[in-house]
Amino acid sequence: MELWFSDNQTDHVKVSVKVEKQLFGEQTDFQRIDVFESREFGRFLSSDGSIVFSEKDEFIYDEMIVHVPMAVHPHVKKVLVIGGGDGGVARELSYYEEIEQIDVVESDRTFVDVCRKFFPDNACGLEDPRVNIYYEDGLRFLRTKHDAYDLIINDAIDPLGHTAGLFTKEFYGNCYRALKEDGIMVYQHGSPFYDEDEESCRVMHRKASHSFPISRVYQAHIPTCSSGYWLFGFASKKYHPLTDLNVERWKARGIKTWYYTTNLHKGAFMLPKYVEDMLEEEEGRR
Amino acid sequence: MELWFSDNQTDHVKVSVKVEKQLFGEQTDFQRIDVFESREFGRFLSSDGSIVFSEKDEFIYDEMIVHVPMAVHPHVKKVLVIGGGDGGVARELSYYEEIEQIDVVESDRTFVDVCRKFFPDNACGLEDPRVNIYYEDGLRFLRTKHDAYDLIINDAIDPLGHTAGLFTKEFYGNCYRALKEDGIMVYQHGSPFYDEDEESCRVMHRKASHSFPISRVYQAHIPTCSSGYWLFGFASKKYHPLTDLNVERWKARGIKTWYYTTNLHKGAFMLPKYVEDMLEEEEGRR
């Protein structure tokens, strides 16, 4: 028997992974969650049929969304993670001694339970005593927060699914308000390659550029993401992702990584011409 | 009817592209060549079942293998392209007025004929009067050349298939001899991500580091390549890919690109930690 899981990246492209067996499958109030065991990607989790993360490549995503802002902001004490119920982002954050509080807001309790059971290497991040988990809607949680966080990480997965509210103009405005006067927000920016993905990528940059004085985009190669090429947004009130990068301070922490280096940090902001052109067009429209 | 083309990137991962129709299919003396029309990638060509290039993403590959060395070497007059029968590399080279001679060595004449018929936007590069096409084995062609070229581009596709001879230690040695005293060789370095690909990636770096005093690796995101993440080798007798990059000289040429910029050039050499570690291990073994 051969069992293949297929992820429809667009209507015309799919990536299929040979699986050894299915470990979990359930419809929650928010999404369909499945967990599979595979040779190539180890265990992986899918939401509504799309791969969310795998044991083999989650390090790329989690390192890039955490260490880039942490190497720039000089004194992060309070962090808000929206989504992030698998624990990978909290795990990377837990390596920083100066952080005092990590609030994780995840709407789907079952998602957290599943990750605790099947992905202990991610979920261990949620066991850090500085972590508070709120099972709430991220947008609603944000509305009550003012001048509260140094860093907000929007780890939500899908601008079209049950987390769509986290990609609206209101959301970016609320993030701005919830941040302290020198706060940074990083977020998933999607993939710019396929035509189907490009529009949401444009809209995100337009909204972030409208709300924040500094809005830049950086890249990583993540094989299980659409086209394998993923962008992150860096929206900031004060610190610039390159000129405020402090290489010595970050290296002195001695954090072990497999993808991130401060050199790669710089390169991640050097984008292909077609992506630069797209972003500049949206900046003109804001 | 739905027709899907599947590219087995490893034994456990495949990428499938929905095709409108098949335009060509033939077994030559060297390989099985097929051409398809698709909505997502436009026309694409496969060799022995693997996608070689598509209209939608060939610009990434062709720009990155040509403009990186051309922005470094100050006076390229004679170029050898091994493989490259589709014409995309020759097309990018043809934008440089200072180049006097472009020798393209392609073993499979049918491959060139097919590209001329179905991919005129690539094959136009072969019509430049400075281009000479040799229908020969690349390794044999090289053996007779000494101190002949400023730049060698190894555009051959597969270290395991009919072009395997172009990935041997002898090949790198012959390239070194065929280059002038300040010559540069660039080559496809494969993808470092999947375990199946990693070994050939290691071997290539070991061989190139053994033959050339300067041997560096750079990256690009190419969706139709294995895992979407592709490496190139930059092996050089004299010029360093970063310290000898001449931004002003390159920009003054006014070449229109969609992927390459001199800023991206720098970022392309800033590699993920796991790739850096792999390359350093091989340098220790050379």
UniProtKB/TrEMBL annotation, chains A, B:
Protein name stated in the entry = Polyamine aminopropyltransferase
Spell out the family assignment given in the record's similarity comment.
Belongs to the spermidine/spermine synthase family.
UniProt binding sites for spermidine: D86
Q: Which SUPFAM superfamilies match?
A: S-adenosyl-L-methionine-dependent methyltransferases (SSF53335)
> What task does this protein carry out?
Catalyzes the irreversible transfer of a propylamine group from the amino donor S-adenosylmethioninamine (decarboxy-AdoMet) to putrescine (1,4-diaminobutane) to yield spermidine.
Source organism, top-level taxon: Bacteria
Task: Provide the Gene Ontology terms for cellular component.
Answer: cytosol
Say if the entry is tagged with keyword Chaperone. no
